[in-house]
Amino acid sequence: MTKKDNDKNEAKASYSLRIQAINSKGQNKRFFVYIPMPLAAALGVEKGEEVSWELLDRNELHLVRKSPPPTKTKKRA
Fold first, then answer.
1. How many domains does the chain have?
2. Kindly report the CA angle at 64 between 62 and 68, in degrees rounded to 5?
3. Which of 18, 21, 27, 72 is 20 to 30 Å from 3 at the Cα level?
4. Pairing status of strand 30-32 against strand 51-57
């Protein structure tokens, strides 16, 4: 395994979650996806931040942040 391959493996994190459905009278069904706190903290996601989804294929979505805040931590060596 090369250093590049090892870096890719170390950067991966997996968080399981369930999609929730909300049924409100007089409205269409809405689905909600929550970001687990450890992932939100690692990304620096903030309350009210605007995001969008890109559909890559039927099995993969890409979360796009409209205006991510600047990083607060320094890059590690």
1. 1
2. 145
3. 72
4. unpaired
